[in-house]
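A quick aside before the break. I want you to see a complete sequence-to-structure record at least once, exactly as it would be stored in a machine-readable document. Don't worry about memorizing anything.
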Amino acid sequence: MEKQYINPPEINPPASYSHVVNVKGAGRLVFIAGQTAFNASGELVGRGDLRAQATQVFENLKVSLAAVGATFEDVVKYTTFIVNYTPEQRSVVGEVREKYLPAKNPPASTLLGVQSLAREGMLIEIEMIAALD
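That is the input. The structure line, written in tokens, reads:
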């Protein structure tokens, strides 16, 4: 499988994601449902704390990827949803994200501000797509 990470020069260079990821010859695609800050016991981690919730979300994503033999290196696209988003929150999520996602050839990414998520107290949700050989 070949992955191409493309940032066309005609588009503003991204800071922490790729504009385009082209996957050729993918053996399989894995779609991971939006993960939230609930731990294995069903408890919301970090009520009111975006950093703590983002960390739990990425830990849940790590477990989800491992369940199919994947890592964050296999992620080609992810979408982040943040409740009542403000630009200041981007750096908080970015600091957490940097601990998990590859700096070289980062996946394509979209960040959306939303009014609310499925359950009260949730501040962030992230869904991912991974491509594996």
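Two observations worth writing down. The two ends are 6 Å apart (CA to CA). The chain has two helices and six strands. We'll return to this after the break.
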